[in-house]
Amino acid sequence: MFNSKPNGGVDKRAQEAEKKAREAEAEAKKVEAIKNSIAQAIEGMRAFALAPSTDRCEAAAKRVTELLKNPKAPRDFVTEMRARSDDLLKSCFMKAASDAAAAALSAAHHDDKELLGKKIGEAKTHLARALQLKAPPEFKMACNRALEAASMTGFVTHDGPTKAKPGDFAPKPPDRAHGATPMKFEQPKPAPGAVPPKPGMVAHR
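The structure assignment produced for this chain is given below.
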Protein backbone atom coordinates (compact mmCIF):
# COMPACT_ATOMS: atom_id res chain seq x y z
CA MET A 1 0.00 0.00 0.00
CA PHE A 2 1.08 3.58 -0.75
CA ASN A 3 1.27 6.22 1.97
CA SER A 4 -1.16 9.06 1.09
CA LYS A 5 -0.20 11.30 3.99
CA PRO A 6 2.14 13.58 1.99
CA ASN A 7 -0.54 14.46 -0.53
CA GLY A 8 -3.10 14.75 2.24
CA GLY A 9 -0.84 17.21 4.06
CA VAL A 10 -0.46 19.37 0.93
CA ASP A 11 -4.21 19.43 0.36
CA LYS A 12 -4.81 20.41 3.96
CA ARG A 13 -2.33 23.28 3.78
CA ALA A 14 -3.89 24.46 0.53
CA GLN A 15 -7.34 24.34 2.06
CA GLU A 16 -6.16 26.29 5.07
CA ALA A 17 -4.52 28.91 2.84
CA GLU A 18 -7.67 29.20 0.78
CA LYS A 19 -9.75 29.54 3.93
CA LYS A 20 -7.49 32.31 5.23
CA ALA A 21 -7.72 34.08 1.90
CA ARG A 22 -11.50 33.96 2.01
CA GLU A 23 -11.49 35.23 5.59
CA ALA A 24 -9.12 38.06 4.68
CA GLU A 25 -11.33 39.03 1.76
CA ALA A 26 -14.43 39.01 3.96
CA GLU A 27 -12.62 41.09 6.58
CA ALA A 28 -11.55 43.60 3.94
CA LYS A 29 -15.14 43.91 2.78
CA LYS A 30 -16.25 44.53 6.36
CA VAL A 31 -13.64 47.27 6.79
CA GLU A 32 -14.70 48.84 3.51
CA ALA A 33 -18.33 48.77 4.61
CA ILE A 34 -17.38 50.45 7.89
CA LYS A 35 -15.45 53.15 6.04
CA ASN A 36 -18.37 53.73 3.67
CA SER A 37 -20.85 54.10 6.53
CA ILE A 38 -18.58 56.66 8.22
CA ALA A 39 -18.11 58.57 4.97
CA GLN A 40 -21.88 58.67 4.42
CA ALA A 41 -22.40 59.98 7.94
CA ILE A 42 -19.85 62.72 7.25
CA GLU A 43 -21.73 63.70 4.08
CA GLY A 44 -24.93 63.92 6.10
CA MET A 45 -23.18 66.30 8.47
CA ARG A 46 -22.09 68.46 5.55
CA ALA A 47 -25.71 69.13 4.54
CA PHE A 48 -26.64 70.09 8.11
CA ALA A 49 -23.60 72.35 8.43
CA LEU A 50 -24.53 74.26 5.28
CA ALA A 51 -28.17 74.70 6.34
CA PRO A 52 -27.16 75.39 9.17
CA SER A 53 -29.03 72.98 11.45
CA THR A 54 -27.11 72.83 14.72
CA ASP A 55 -29.25 70.17 16.42
CA ARG A 56 -29.11 67.79 13.49
CA CYS A 57 -25.42 68.43 12.94
CA GLU A 58 -24.68 67.68 16.59
CA ALA A 59 -26.68 64.44 16.35
CA ALA A 60 -24.86 63.46 13.17
CA ALA A 61 -21.51 64.22 14.81
CA LYS A 62 -22.38 61.91 17.72
CA ARG A 63 -23.24 59.15 15.26
CA VAL A 64 -19.89 59.63 13.51
CA THR A 65 -18.12 59.46 16.86
CA GLU A 66 -19.80 56.14 17.63
CA LEU A 67 -18.90 54.75 14.21
CA LEU A 68 -15.28 55.80 14.68
CA LYS A 69 -15.06 53.66 17.82
CA ASN A 70 -15.24 50.51 15.71
CA PRO A 71 -11.94 48.69 16.29
CA LYS A 72 -11.91 47.45 12.69
CA ALA A 73 -11.76 51.01 11.31
CA PRO A 74 -8.19 51.87 10.21
CA ARG A 75 -6.54 54.32 12.60
CA ASP A 76 -5.38 56.77 9.92
CA PHE A 77 -8.88 56.79 8.44
CA VAL A 78 -10.37 57.39 11.90
CA THR A 79 -8.06 60.37 12.47
CA GLU A 80 -8.97 61.92 9.12
CA MET A 81 -12.72 61.45 9.56
CA ARG A 82 -12.68 62.79 13.12
CA ALA A 83 -10.97 65.96 11.88
CA ARG A 84 -13.58 66.35 9.13
CA SER A 85 -16.41 65.86 11.60
CA ASP A 86 -14.98 68.47 13.97
CA ASP A 87 -14.51 70.96 11.15
CA LEU A 88 -18.07 70.50 9.88
CA LEU A 89 -19.55 70.88 13.35
CA LYS A 90 -17.47 74.00 13.96
CA SER A 91 -18.52 75.46 10.60
CA CYS A 92 -22.16 74.77 11.41
CA PHE A 93 -22.07 76.72 14.66
CA MET A 94 -20.01 79.54 13.13
CA LYS A 95 -22.58 79.94 10.35
CA ALA A 96 -25.45 79.76 12.84
CA ALA A 97 -23.83 82.45 15.00
CA SER A 98 -23.16 84.64 11.97
CA ASP A 99 -26.72 84.27 10.67
CA ALA A 100 -28.19 85.05 14.11
CA ALA A 101 -25.99 88.15 14.46
CA ALA A 102 -27.11 89.37 11.03
CA ALA A 103 -30.73 88.76 11.98
CA ALA A 104 -30.18 90.73 15.20
CA LEU A 105 -28.86 93.68 13.22
CA SER A 106 -31.87 93.52 10.91
CA ALA A 107 -34.24 93.39 13.89
CA ALA A 108 -32.51 96.40 15.43
CA HIS A 109 -32.88 98.43 12.24
CA HIS A 110 -36.58 97.54 12.20
CA ASP A 111 -37.00 98.38 15.91
CA ASP A 112 -38.16 94.84 16.69
CA LYS A 113 -37.06 94.52 20.33
CA GLU A 114 -38.44 91.02 20.86
CA LEU A 115 -36.74 89.56 17.80
CA LEU A 116 -33.54 91.46 18.60
CA GLY A 117 -33.29 89.91 22.07
CA LYS A 118 -34.03 86.45 20.70
CA LYS A 119 -31.41 86.65 17.97
CA ILE A 120 -28.74 88.11 20.24
CA GLY A 121 -29.32 85.18 22.62
CA GLU A 122 -29.08 82.68 19.77
CA ALA A 123 -25.91 84.28 18.42
CA LYS A 124 -24.22 84.18 21.83
CA THR A 125 -25.17 80.53 22.35
CA HIS A 126 -23.92 79.47 18.93
CA LEU A 127 -20.77 81.55 19.31
CA ALA A 128 -19.94 79.91 22.64
CA ARG A 129 -20.28 76.45 21.07
CA ALA A 130 -18.23 77.48 18.03
CA LEU A 131 -15.44 78.66 20.34
CA GLN A 132 -15.54 75.31 22.16
CA LEU A 133 -14.95 73.75 18.75
CA LYS A 134 -11.91 76.04 18.27
CA ALA A 135 -13.37 78.74 16.05
CA PRO A 136 -10.69 81.36 15.32
CA PRO A 137 -10.45 84.47 17.54
CA GLU A 138 -11.03 86.66 14.49
CA PHE A 139 -14.50 85.18 14.16
CA LYS A 140 -15.23 85.87 17.83
CA MET A 141 -14.23 89.51 17.40
CA ALA A 142 -16.34 89.94 14.26
CA CYS A 143 -19.38 88.32 15.83
CA ASN A 144 -19.09 90.39 19.01
CA ARG A 145 -18.79 93.57 16.95
CA ALA A 146 -21.97 92.69 15.10
CA LEU A 147 -23.83 92.01 18.35
CA GLU A 148 -22.58 95.24 19.87
CA ALA A 149 -23.73 97.08 16.78
CA ALA A 150 -27.16 95.48 17.03
CA SER A 151 -27.42 96.46 20.70
CA MET A 152 -26.53 100.08 19.95
CA THR A 153 -28.79 100.46 16.93
CA GLY A 154 -32.27 101.95 17.24
CA PHE A 155 -34.69 102.27 20.18
CA VAL A 156 -33.06 105.47 21.52
CA THR A 157 -34.00 109.03 20.60
CA HIS A 158 -31.14 111.54 20.74
CA ASP A 159 -31.56 115.30 21.14
CA GLY A 160 -28.19 116.02 19.57
CA PRO A 161 -26.26 114.55 16.66
CA THR A 162 -26.30 110.74 16.45
CA LYS A 163 -23.36 108.47 15.78
CA ALA A 164 -23.37 106.34 12.67
CA LYS A 165 -25.03 102.99 13.27
CA PRO A 166 -22.21 100.49 13.76
CA GLY A 167 -23.83 97.97 11.43
CA ASP A 168 -23.42 100.30 8.48
CA PHE A 169 -19.91 100.42 7.08
CA ALA A 170 -20.47 103.11 4.46
CA PRO A 171 -19.70 106.72 5.49
CA LYS A 172 -22.76 108.46 6.87
CA PRO A 173 -23.96 111.81 5.51
CA PRO A 174 -24.08 114.72 7.98
CA ASP A 175 -27.00 114.56 10.39
CA ARG A 176 -28.47 117.87 9.28
CA ALA A 177 -31.82 117.17 10.89
CA HIS A 178 -30.21 117.39 14.33
CA GLY A 179 -27.89 120.27 13.59
CA ALA A 180 -24.64 118.37 13.13
CA THR A 181 -23.95 120.40 9.98
CA PRO A 182 -25.89 123.60 9.19
CA MET A 183 -27.79 123.47 5.94
CA LYS A 184 -26.63 126.02 3.39
CA PHE A 185 -29.07 127.58 0.95
CA GLU A 186 -27.86 129.39 -2.11
CA GLN A 187 -29.42 132.83 -2.63
CA PRO A 188 -31.24 133.09 -5.94
CA LYS A 189 -29.52 135.38 -8.42
CA PRO A 190 -31.54 138.52 -9.36
CA ALA A 191 -32.69 138.88 -12.92
CA PRO A 192 -30.58 141.21 -15.13
CA GLY A 193 -31.37 144.85 -14.34
CA ALA A 194 -33.36 144.04 -11.17
CA VAL A 195 -32.47 145.67 -7.82
CA PRO A 196 -31.60 143.09 -5.19
CA PRO A 197 -33.96 143.27 -2.15
CA LYS A 198 -32.55 144.68 1.08
CA PRO A 199 -32.16 142.34 4.04
CA GLY A 200 -35.46 141.80 5.82
CA MET A 201 -37.55 142.80 2.78
CA VAL A 202 -39.63 140.41 0.78
CA ALA A 203 -39.07 140.60 -2.92
CA HIS A 204 -42.25 141.08 -4.94
CA ARG A 205 -42.71 139.53 -8.32
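Interim note for the steering committee: The two ends are 146 Å apart (CA to CA). Helices lie at 5-50, 54-68, 75-109, 113-132, 137-152.
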